[in-house]
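ok trying again, last paste got cut off:
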Amino acid sequence: MREARFIDESSARAVVRSQFPVSDYDYAANIRRSNCFNVVAETTAIVGFASLLVEATPELGSESWRQYPLYLGVIAIHPDFCRQKIGTLILKELARLSMIKASHHAEMHLHVSSANEGAMKFFRARGFETLRQEGKYSDGTEGNLMVCAIKALKLSS
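nice, full thing came through this time. structure:
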């Protein structure tokens, strides 16, 4: 697990597209932004990517994202590497970076589709709670706004 570098952008984009083929936003481009923590997981190639928006600006993120100082825009694991604790390791690294570089923020936020039961279960098992249903995805499913105190993240499993 490590912070993403500029040369990781195309590989990170491929991992995101493997999970979210119709996403309207190019999350891998966040690697070029200073107000995001971007993390990659790699074996012989990059197999996981996440981007955490730290301080939102008008040019980065939707209006709803800008309401939350630490906002997990995306976490994606290549399908061949799912269920191998890579997502947990990525969250652990994002929490570590947040405590060091953005310690003035105590909570991490994210949206997840109510139809994505696997993601909902994953985040709940790590301490996230649903605050409310908020927004709709392009497929018509409800979005759930979830939050977790960084120090309360359950990252041992």
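cool. The CA atoms of residues 64 and 115 lie 20 Å apart. Helices lie at 9-19, 86-101, 117-125.
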